[in-house]
TrEMBL record:
<dbReference type="Pfam" id="PF20811">
    <property type="entry name" value="PARG_cat_N"/>
</dbReference>
<comment type="similarity">
    <text>Belongs to the poly(ADP-ribose) glycohydrolase family.</text>
</comment>
<feature type="binding site">
    <location>
        <position position="328"/>
    </location>
    <ligand>
        <name>substrate</name>
    </ligand>
</feature>
<keyword id="KW-0378">Hydrolase</keyword>
<dbReference type="GO" id="GO:0005634">
    <property type="term" value="C:nucleus"/>
</dbReference>
<dbReference type="InterPro" id="IPR046372">
    <property type="entry name" value="PARG_cat_C"/>
</dbReference>
<feature type="binding site">
    <location>
        <position position="342"/>
    </location>
    <ligand>
        <name>substrate</name>
    </ligand>
</feature>
<feature type="active site">
    <location>
        <position position="343"/>
    </location>
</feature>
<feature type="domain" description="PARG catalytic Macro">
    <location>
        <begin position="294"/>
        <end position="496"/>
    </location>
</feature>
<feature type="binding site">
    <location>
        <position position="383"/>
    </location>
    <ligand>
        <name>substrate</name>
    </ligand>
</feature>
<dbReference type="InterPro" id="IPR007724">
    <property type="entry name" value="Poly_GlycHdrlase"/>
</dbReference>
<dbReference type="GO" id="GO:0005737">
    <property type="term" value="C:cytoplasm"/>
</dbReference>
<feature type="active site">
    <location>
        <position position="344"/>
    </location>
</feature>
<feature type="active site">
    <location>
        <position position="325"/>
    </location>
</feature>
<dbReference type="GO" id="GO:1990966">
    <property type="term" value="P:ATP generation from poly-ADP-D-ribose"/>
</dbReference>
<dbReference type="GO" id="GO:0009225">
    <property type="term" value="P:nucleotide-sugar metabolic process"/>
</dbReference>
<dbReference type="GO" id="GO:0004649">
    <property type="term" value="F:poly(ADP-ribose) glycohydrolase activity"/>
</dbReference>
Amino acid sequence: RLLGAPSRCEEQKEKCEFKPQRPGRKIPKYMPPPLPTNKKWFGTPIEEMRRMPLCGARLPHLRPSANHTVTIRVDLLREGEVPKPFPTHYKDLWDNKHVKMPCSEQNLYPVEDENGDRTAGSRWELIQTALLNKFTCSHDLKEAILRYNVAYAKKWDFTALTDFCDKILEDAEAQHLFQSILPDMVKLALCLPNICTQPIPLLKQKMNHSITMSQEQIASFLANAFFCTFPRRNAKMKSEYSSYPDINFNRLFEGRSPRKPEKLKTLFCYFRRVTEKKPTGLVTFTRQSLQDFPDWERSQKKLSRLHVTYEGTIESNGHGMLQVDFANRFVGGGVTGAGLVQEEIRFLINPELIVSRLITEVLDHNECLIITGTEQYSEYTGYAETYRWARSHEDKTPRDEWQRRYTEIVAIDAFHFRRFLDQFGPEKIRRELNKAYCGFSRPNVPPQHLSAVATGNWGCGAFGGDSRLKALIQILAAAEAGRDVVYFTFGDVELMRDIYSMHTFLCEKGQTVGDIYRLLLRYYNEECRSCSTSGPDVKLYSFIYSTIESYADSTDDDDDEEKGLCFED
């Protein structure tokens, strides 16, 4: 503590430590039984957890419906073949329900004719002219992008792009970029009206809607994002798209952060791959907006199974499981800007995720985004400041009957806590439970067909979440949704042991989701509500152990049957 000044809590010790207990009754200090010291994981062996495709039900035939947009010819879908766009010819909708396309006839910009009169010109024609000029250096690329983004000529900064091309890349690499990769990317971008022929609906708040498109269509969208061609998506405090993430890549090109070259390497790896060989799969983006949530206080559900480990990652060890993206409410977070933590890394190594930023309005508290079928194109090392692109990755994940990779990712945004204690408040706990439940729940799918949730310290970095509380919240939400949990602590051995001990204890004591939820409310009332320091004296897990133990002690004289103890076999 700064200069060792006594905290307010030390001055007000009596006030803080007052517990509404029966007089003279001391809460016993419970210690969970010791665990072996050298184990890398605890709980149910990961091999016993449900994974796709083994656990999945058969998919219905892929067909468009009122709540499912399909942008390819379903009748011509064949394994290993590039899907055909539907409809055959480009159809445009320039309205507030669909993506405003760069190639739309409505995408206009002001021009002066020879008499000095102002008329409207086609921005798409300008884009084509600008991009079809040969680039020999980063300056050419910058000039091309600014030709159709004149309003931003003095605002956008291309330092990161320039440094990458001039200082980071070897001469041969830079030559390959300008002679091969970028011209191929231009072709891919300008093919947009031939590849993406159907208007793409925006996934707005309160919608339950899916969009299934081809990896080739996504590649064309992303090439356009790279060249910053999407109209109406740049103004900051603007009306129309202020509730959507950025899609144009201009922020990727700015500044001198050492993270930028690594991001650019990762994305150019993707563009090189998809231009060398067209991908043949499909990807589905689903916005799920739930109206009905569990009555947490009265839930009788028992906890599901848990595997917890300090080794491995969600993307490498959670294959076939529901993989959690610790999302920003603007999905993708800072992927095209400064951010480089869990969500941004996932969007970089599986860049098809970035298209969700084109279509997904900011997530509300009762919503999530589910993305099925994206492919991993890169491997990496490190995290945040130490992130490095390592190499190209050949994704071997099998495909389902809709030609989607069996990779299901759910974006759920944790609440951002400014003060540590805020997260223990009842409405905040309920908010996080409901958000996780929204991500994990699949109404109308029987539990035996639900894969395990692969997750970790959701919302525990910059968002100020407590990892032990967040683990418990996710365990409760998964139990309610009928899913097992595979939890990665990302190198934190102590956290692994704590989560396992708590899960085992709660199962052995027969605690239901409702019992545990009520304990969280009690913890807030007794330890957090009137605490004047930044953190409570009694830690959450100690409180849970002691409260359940003292309850068990006080009922020892009663009939044991009533305790409802259940021991895991």
